[in-house]
Amino acid sequence: MDPKKDDKKKDKLSEEEMNELLEQLKKYKKNQKQRFGITFLLHTNYLIHLMLSFMVNLIVAAALIGFSAGINQPFVVLELLGFFLAIALVTLIENMTKILLYKYFTSVMLMSMGLISLMVFILIMYTVDLLLTTGFRFLGVEQIIVFAVFFTMIRFLFTSYLRRWFFHPPMRQNHRR
User: What domain range is 137 assigned to?
Assistant: First the structure.
């Protein structure tokens, strides 16, 4: 008996072991996709997700800007077209950056409990403020930060409810008379 041949046989995996490892890898990849979907996506179809994100951002931003104007502490000076353009830009930029962040830094994003997302959102709002010279202008850096914090919290609550409604629809009861 040659000890080198025995070592080579031990190093080689049987077909069953290889299939088992492949199954474990598939389960791991499936869990990674589910984790990404749970943390970020509103819908499995990306175009529908973008439309839902735009509508959610539009509703939350309009409510927040309206509330701030109602208490006489406005965040932003805006025109209607500038508002729609700003929210569209925010939605597109945010979706692209979050996809990249969740793809390459998933564990860091999850461990930060939303702080990195908040900082990224503040930077996105500042960038949109710089890009749109007319029609949408924050009154100061403080307003951007306060707007981003409240926007993120309200949107989180709104999207949590939306996800629950999409992925776990209410059970319908059969009423018999």
Answer: 42-166
* Neighbouring C-beta atoms of residue 26, cutoff 10 Å: 10
Other Cβ atoms closer than 10 A to 41: 19
Token reading at 62: 């309009």
pTM equals 0.70
115 found inside a domain: yes
State how many domains the chain has: 1
**Which two structure tokens, joined as six digits, stand for 34?**
């589910």
Neighbouring-strand partners of residue 78? 136
Rg (alpha carbons) of the chain, rounded to whole number: 24
Q: Is residue 31 part of a domain?
A: no
Q: Is residue 76 part of a domain?
A: yes
What is the average pLDDT score of the chain? Answer: 82
Structure tokens at 27: 């389960």
Q: Cα torsion at 119, 74, 70, 87 (round to 10°)?
A: -50
